[in-house]
């Protein structure tokens, strides 16, 4: 077992990502990160005692998409691993407006969850690593985020009722590429990763190297440490929220509607108020995708300052209405 695969195993054991008997769905784009992840899990499956099933999502957003799919299918066959592919047509949603990156990400997650459930998988493995973590923290700082956003990419996280795991979160891009080179494993290169009109690419290619050279030579480690400490602080707040949230519910009028006690909400600290509001949106909608700190601040203003009957519109058709004694989210 090489050092890269050993590090992946240590991460799996440290965070209890995979248990014997599990079936893991691996999201594989064909790029270096996901190919390295699939190869590592393929080597570890017999040692730990789990099954691996690969999934490739074809967005049809660039010329090489079909070639990527064929490459992934061939690579999975070489490892004797089952592979499910899913084709997405995103043009209709893209025409409605919004970030192409965010739309593709949302639809990809939905497709992966569907494939995982259909194949009775316990968890979905993604190939995020330490470079991704540092980039994501910096990107969210630039966009404006709270504590929840600073924790960025966690080793494991429940999304829409499905468990997502990141076995490579303790590895970096250099280690991944070194492993692939040593094992003589080929991968696909997404040329759009070099296009700096994408915000993340600009952060990766321009801003992080500049900060490293001019201000902090271990900027990646600093950002990753910030994510870890923010994650620990946020987890404490989340546990406290679980204790008080049920006490705030006046009534649950339907699967898509919830009323919270307005007086009790107003008495909460700003930090706990944001946590409760985030939980309420998640209970009503099923997730908190596209919900930002700005939305939560507007909800706080609705609770404390705006008159009865005032409304705040939130992403994806969710709205909050201030009643005389309650805040209704539906």
Task: Pick out its properties.
330 residues, alpha/beta, Rossmann fold, Chorismate Mutase Domain, subunit A, 2 domains, six-stranded mixed β-sheet, five-stranded antiparallel β-sheet, 13 helices
What would your notes on this structure say?
This protein has 330 residues and is an alpha/beta fold. It has two domains: 176 residues, Rossmann fold, CATH 3.40.50.620; 93 residues, Chorismate Mutase Domain, subunit A (Up-down Bundle). Strands 3-2-1-4-6-5 form a six-stranded mixed beta sheet, sandwiched between helices. A five-stranded antiparallel beta sheet has the order 7-8-11-10-9. Strand 10 and strand 11 form a beta hairpin. Helix 1 packs across helix 2, helix 2 crosses helix 8 and helix 6 crosses helix 10. The longest helix is centred in the C-terminal third of the chain and has 30 residues. It is globular and about 65 Å long. The chain starts with a helix and ends with a strand. The mean pLDDT is 89.
Helices and strands, with pairings:
Elements: H1 3-14, E1 23-27, H2 32-48, E2 51-58, H3 65-78, E3 83-87, H4 91-95, H5 100-118, E4 123-125, H6 130-143, H7 147-150, E5 156-159, E6 162-165, H8 173-182, H9 199-214, H10 219-248, E7 249-254, E8 257-261, H11 262-267, H12 270-285, H13 293-304, E9 311-313, E10 319-322, E11 326-329
Parallel strand pairs: 1-2, 1-4, 2-3, 4-6
Antiparallel strand pairs: 5-6, 7-8, 8-11, 9-10, 10-11
